[in-house]
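TL;DR need structure tokens for one chain.
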Amino acid sequence: MKGNRFEGLSDDQWKVLEELLPKKPKKRGKGKPHTPWRKVCNSLLWMLINGARWCDLPIGNQWASRSATHRWLGVWQESERLEKMLIGVKEQAELKGLLNFERLALGGFFFSRQRRRRAD
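>> reply
TL;DR here they are.
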């Protein structure tokens, strides 16, 4: 991420995700070769982070096509692989101390474990 824009996974981030993906996808027959997983993950994360429409997905060397990204999202949701990937990333981040559960943000509200004293 540069600034506030997601421009693709870093090498360290990719190492975590790569372990959670199958080595080779099932061959679908003739046609285009399989899109590399890193490009699919970059595109899927871009969509999730930005909450954008499929037609707004960037085009470039680090991105998969809209159709490939959409297809793999459906396959991963149906097979529960997406949930396993998200859990795996969370677990890796926890092990490396990258998550701070002392402060959480949900829907624009911030929560802290520290209790504030009320002024009477």
